[in-house]
Specification:
Layout: H1 8-14, E1 19-24, H2 38-53, E2 58-60, H3 83-98, E3 104-109, H4 115-128, E4 134-139, H5 140-143, H6 164-173, H7 229-250
Parallel strand pairs: 1-2, 1-3, 3-4
Helix pairs in contact: 2-6, 2-7, 3-4, 6-7
């Protein structure tokens, strides 16, 4: 089911039993070789395939194509909500969906910069509003696990930004948005044992904030020149399979209830 083609009585009937899937992307620079639509296109493409696999279970919303991307504003083409604005916007969208009678909502994310403000929005909304519905944040590369963390046929250790992973995925989804002639590694600052940049390796429990023009000369990370359409198809299948498996499980979750005093 696709929200964009439904009328309100259809939504009213479907929402209480459906898994409402709202893809979250961004419009931001992805180096000289990828279109600014990359994050939105990846989230939407995987979500559309999951809806096609479970058309009676998934109510697919239009993709929110602008995210929290202030860290990319050093490169032209980026549209961004501040973290504070994005928190408010996501909370409002969640509140809107729950007025439909929805009980299970998936915020399906394709942009790393959205993770912190979306979690903040869920925390703020959840503490201010009593409801029995489940609202969850799912980020596709985290859900799919090993496929986005160095498993063959990928050669880089994990997904980063405009890297082998994202470039491969876009070659499979939107090849017209990829210029492989410009897909080259970028200059980065040196890594340390606690703060690493290249291929976004796991850190030692240390976090910081850096605008992307302090991290990469071209706007991309990793090894985008290693990307192929075939690798992208592997990644898309892994992400779609993982999302469908989650939807199947999510559908079985009993709704929340107040457990105090035997209620």
């Amino acid at each position: 089911m696709r929200l964009a083609t439904m009328n309100w009585p259809q939504v009213k009937r479907a929402a209480p039993e459906a898994v409402v899937l709202l893809p979250l992307g961004s419009t931001e620079q992805h180096g000289p070789h990828l279109a600014v639509s990359t994050d939105a296109a990846c989230a939407a493409g995987i979500a559309e395939r999951a809806e096609a696999a479970r058309p009676k279970d998934v109510l697919l919303c239009p993709t929110l194509a602008v995210g929290s991307s202030h860290h990319h504003l050093g490169f032209p083409g980026t549209l961004s909500f501040s973290p504070e604005t994005y928190v408010r916007g996501i909370a409002d969208l969640v509140a809107s969906v729950l007025t439909w009678g929805a009980n299970r909502v998936v915020l399906f994310n394709g942009h790393g910069g959205n993770i912190t403000p979306v979690n903040q929005a869920l925390a703020e909304y959840g503490t201010r509003n009593e409801h029995n519905a489940f609202v969850v944040l799912v980020t596709y590369w985290e859900l799919a696990g090993k496929a986005f963390a160095g498993a063959p046929p990928l050669e880089s250790p994990r997904l980063s930004h405009a890297c082998e992973y994202e470039t491969s995925t876009m070659l499979a989804l939107c090849p017209e948005a990829v210029d492989m002639a410009q897909a080259k590694p970028s200059a980065h600052p040196p890594d340390s044992a606690y703060l690493a940049v290249r291929d976004a390796p796991k850190h030692g429990g240390v976090s910081t904030y850096s605008p992307f023009h302090h991290l990469t000369a071209q706007g991309n990370m990793g090894e985008p020149q290693r990307a192929t359409k075939a690798k992208g198809e592997v990644l898309i299948k892994a992400a779609t399979d993982a999302l469908v498996a989650f939807v199947d499980d999510f559908k079985t979750w009993p709704l929340r209830k107040d457990l105090r005093d035997g209620k």
